[in-house]
Amino acid sequence: MTPPATLFRLDAYLAEEGARAEEALDRSLSGLAPLLPPDVMEVARYAVLGGGKRLRPILCAAAWRACGGGETEGIHDLGAAVELIHAYSLMHDDLPCMDDAPLRRGRPTPHRVFGVGRATVAGAALIPAAALTAWRAAGRLNADPSVPRQVVRELCRAAGGGGMVGGQVLDLLGEGRVLDEQALDGLHARKTGALLTASLRLGGVAAGASPDQLSALDGYGRAVGLAFQVRDDILDATAGVETLGKAPSDRDRGKSTYVALHGLPEAERRARELVDRALAELEAGGVDSPPLRALALHVVERDR
Ligand code: GRG
Q: Residues enclosing ligand 1, CB less than 6 A?
């Protein structure tokens, strides 16, 4: 059963960790001048620093601490690498050839401000920028030379054809068709879940996590990733543009969603069940982390 609201002060934690993630993103962009020439940097800064919950870097830092990593700003530099991939994916997802979205995070999308060409190029430039950021950050966090290699490999795998890009392809192929629950789970495990799970695993790998701890982070990430998407579908069906910072679009685009498949009450039940699974995964792997427990609950209670 989902436990009652925890005493952990999540609001303060999210505000503090979000601010540290934001600073790390600013630092990482400043350190990327050779990969992001001025014309591209301007667009990248707009897209990357334009708000956002910073959930992925926050998960990365929480996993690092849960696996014995010490208190250091360096972990947010690693989380920034995941957030750069996330930022590129949003930028490309919003392009006219994809969702053609005018608004994101309550502001005009990058292509509406800078044009489609510059937004496309800046999004692409963020991919190698993220790999380089991960490589540099992991090397500073852990003296074991295999750690940066593992971190970059995991990030690229999660972002690629077996992960986020693969999920996007399934999403495109599924438009206008009715997907069953298994197909929907498979799509979202890749499109959203892979990068969320990588956020956690990167923090764990950098901290030298044991195989049991890594497998707990993995199971937690998979469950939270799906719960996150179920909540996304619920918000898309129930919230307006003021709350979401973008226009709801699932129905217009003929997308299969958990809400369309089972209705709202069942989608809400499924999200809670997934949170229970995430908490059980942590417990089974001996990962005792009040922030990770509170974050799992937050994912299904969030209103944006
Ligand atoms: C061109 C095939 C192809 C792929 C490019 C566009 C793309 C890669 C992938 C799409 C990935 C995508 C947009 C997944 C959705 C993830 C999601 C639920 C985003 C919202 O995340 P939040 O709520 O956003 O964390 P904030 O704004 O808080 O950062």
A: 52-53, 55, 89-90, 92-93, 105, 164-165, 168-169, 191-192, 232
**pLDDT tens, 208-235?**
999 999 999 999 999 999 999 999 999 9
Residue of the nearest CA to atom 11 in ligand 1? 89
Alpha helix (H) residue ranges in the chain: 10-30, 38-48, 55-66, 74-93, 110-114, 116-141, 146-159, 164-174, 181-188, 194-206, 211-238, 241-244, 258-262, 264-284, 290-301
Ligand 1 centroid – CA 259 distance (Å):
19
Per residue in 259-283, pLDDT (tens digit) is: 988 899 999 999 999 999 999 999 9
Question: Cα(first)–Cα(last) distance of the chain, in Å?
Answer: 24
**Which of 46, 120, 126, 165 should be mutated for ligand 1, with most atoms under 8 A from CB?**
165
Mean pLDDT of the chain: 93
- Ligand 1 atom nearest to CA at 93: 6
State both tokens at 99: 């969702």
- The pTM assigned to this predicted structure is 0.94
Q: Which two tokens stand for residue 10?
A: 């999540």
**Between the CA of residue 214 and those of 73, 186, 219, what are the distances in Å?**
22, 21, 9
